[in-house]
Amino acid sequence: MQALVNHHYHFIDVYIGWPGSTYDACVLANSDIYIKGEAGTPLPNKPKHICVRGVPLLFLGDPTYPLLPWMMKPYSEVCRVCMEFHCSECTICK
After folding, report:
1. What is the pTM of this model?
2. Is residue 51 assigned to a domain?
3. CB atoms closer than 10 angstroms to residue 1
4. Could you tell me how far CA 60 lies from the centroid of its own chain?
5. CA-wise closest residue to 35 among 15, 5, 7
6. Where are the alpha helices (DSSP H) in the chain?
7. Most buried of 12, 31, 50, 79, CB within 10 angstroms?
């Protein structure tokens, strides 16, 4: 199951029908959201204005999802990067 929830915690899209063992990225790649995203129309073009700058609406995806222009996902290599630069001040890794 893939579900999309808005900032009011309302379900706005649900995609079901795949076995539970199917990779999340595979489910995404076969969903209407992905098709709309690749066509450039996943969300309405209504940027949220924060400090006078327009910030586009984006999806927040699972770490297994691909990073796409219309989808953000967690950055999973923070600690490795900090270790490479010997960042002793890094509060994220502590």
Report:
1. 0.63
2. yes
3. 9
4. 3
5. 15
6. 24-29, 32-38, 78-84
7. 31
Task: Answer yes or no: are the C-beta atoms of 67 and 73 closer than 8 Å.
Answer: yes
Tell me which residue range forms the domain holding 49: 2-84
Number of domains in the chain: 1
Report the relative pairing of strands 48-50 and 2-5 from DSSP bridges.
unpaired
Strand 59-60 relative to strand 71-72, pairing: parallel
Percent of residues, the chain, with pLDDT higher than 90: 1
Tokens 């960042």 -> residue: 87
Residue 45: helix, strand or coil by DSSP?
Answer: coil
Q: pLDDT digits over 51-89, tens only?
A: 888 887 788 888 888 888 888 888 766 555 555 555 555
Has residue 28 been placed in a domain?
yes
